[in-house]
């Protein structure tokens, strides 16, 4: 990312002084989609694209923000009960509130920021924004005393309370805890995690962005979560002797028992989640053995499930998945919440160029625009740049 881009705008739009610069990344996820809020496992890593912000306390109670990408300026009082209207500024407002609730004496500041993580591409640009400000506020006003996990939870609470997306913890976790060259297997229930060095010899990991925009707040993301919770509720009602918190606690047999009660749609959604929960663990085993064929096979299975059972795909993403399949790509699937955005593809080096060229030509011929291609660089999580 470009420090000069942030610095020049910060100086121009505020009082000419410089501040501290922070960066938080977006994320990829190898496998484990919609499992985080179901108490399951995910397998993300941070990428080399994200949000960069320059910030300086201003000795008032006013937060003054300048979005370089939107060329928009917003300011609000830190104790304003309503907060700003502009949705991009509400992320910062929510994070400031949550950091205050964690005991940090947050004061006013000036901030300019920009992002190079594509918006609405399923690479978690919003978690990058939240993590960047949570990390910076902790550094500037909290002596870095707030634990990393609390920064993750502050970002998630911002989504829930100030944006209206009832997301899990995967995106903020990856943005805060990411390490260069390593994926992370996270147990979203216990919050235990392990770093996995990821450097598949002879393969490349690449994102292909359909440029179909998803908007989680306006999308049926929360509706998917409600379906999962409904299935858990029905299973719990049938088995009062057991404790069920999330779909993680439910078995295939128990799901079959409530099929008629919950209806086809909720059944299909829960069916996908139970399968996905197993796939993440299978992929971890396969990775430990260097068995990339199995990793890829599971990725294709996830795509099928996300498309047909969870119903979070779209025509364009199914087409990109099809192109990957016919080109002999090892694994390909929708990445992130769905409803648009990217596919993530595990591709053998020797077919990489042909696959990318074919995807561009065929996609453009069908949809009138070329998809964007981002080779994945697994990078460091949130940090202070200078
Ligand atoms: C979005 C959410 F923010 C995550 O918490 C996760 O549920 C993901 O969709 C799907 O795996 O990115």
UniProtKB/TrEMBL annotation:
Gene3D superfamilies hit by this protein: 3.30.230.10, GHMP kinase, C-terminal domain
Keywords: ATP-binding, Carbohydrate metabolism, Galactose metabolism, Kinase, Nucleotide-binding, Transferase
Residues of the GHMP kinase C-terminal domain: 286-350
NCBIfam families the UniProt entry points to: gal_kin
Galactokinase N-terminal domain segment(s): 9-57
Lineage: superkingdom: Bacteria
Protein name per Swiss-Prot or TrEMBL: Galactokinase
Assigned protein family: Belongs to the GHMP kinase family. GalK subfamily.
GHMP kinase N-terminal domain mapped to chain residues: 90-179
This enzyme's EC code(s): 2.7.1.6
Annotated organism of origin: Prevotella herbatica
């Amino acid at each position: 990312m470009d420090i000069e881009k942030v610095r020049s705008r910060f100086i121009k739009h505020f009082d000419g002084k410089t501040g501290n610069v922070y960066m938080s990344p977006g994320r990829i996820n190898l496998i484990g989609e919609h499992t985080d809020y179901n108490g399951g496992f995910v397998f993300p890593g941070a990428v080399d694209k994200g949000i960069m912000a320059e910030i300086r306390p201003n000795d008032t109670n006013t937060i003054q923000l300048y979005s370089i990408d939107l060329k928009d300026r917003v300011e609000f009082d830190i104790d304003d009960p309503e907060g700003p209207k502009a949705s991009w500024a509400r992320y910062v407002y929510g994070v400031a509130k949550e950091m205050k609730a964690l005991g940090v004496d947050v004061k006013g500041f000036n901030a300019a920021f920009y992002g190079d993580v594509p918006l609405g591409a399923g690479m978690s640009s919003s978690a990058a924004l939240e993590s960047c400000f949570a990390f910076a506020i902790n550094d500037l006003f909290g002596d870095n005393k707030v634990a990393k996990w609390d920064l993750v939870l502050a970002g998630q609470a911002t989504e829930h309370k100030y944006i209206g997306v009832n997301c899990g913890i995967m995106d903020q976790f990856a943005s805060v805890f990411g390490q260069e060259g390593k994926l992370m297997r996270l147990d979203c229930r216990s919050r235990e995690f392990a770093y996995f060095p990821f450097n598949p010899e002879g393969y490349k990991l690449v994102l292909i962005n359909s440029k179909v925009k998803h908007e989680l707040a306006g999308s049926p993301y929360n509706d998917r979560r409600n379906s999962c919770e409904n299935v858990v509720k029905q299973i719990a009602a049938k088995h009062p002797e057991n404790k069920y918190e999330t779909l993680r606690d439910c078995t295939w047999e128990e799901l079959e028992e409530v099929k008629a009660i919950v209806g086809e749609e909720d059944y299909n959604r829960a069916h996908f989640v139970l399968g996905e929960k197993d796939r993440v663990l299978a992929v971890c085993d396969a990775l430990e053995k260097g068995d990339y064929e199995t990793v890829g096979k599971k990725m294709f299975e996830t795509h099928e499930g996300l498309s047909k059972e969870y119903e979070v795909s779209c025509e364009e993403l199914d087409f990109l998945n099809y192109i990957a399949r016919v080109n002999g790509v090892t694994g390909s699937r929708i990445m992130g919440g769905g409803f648009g955005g990217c596919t993530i593809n595990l591709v053998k080096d020797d077919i990489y160029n042909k696959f990318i060229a074919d995807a561009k030509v065929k996609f453009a011929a069908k949809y009138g625009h070329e998809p964007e291609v981002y080779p994945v660089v697994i990078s460091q999580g949130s940090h202070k740049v200078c």
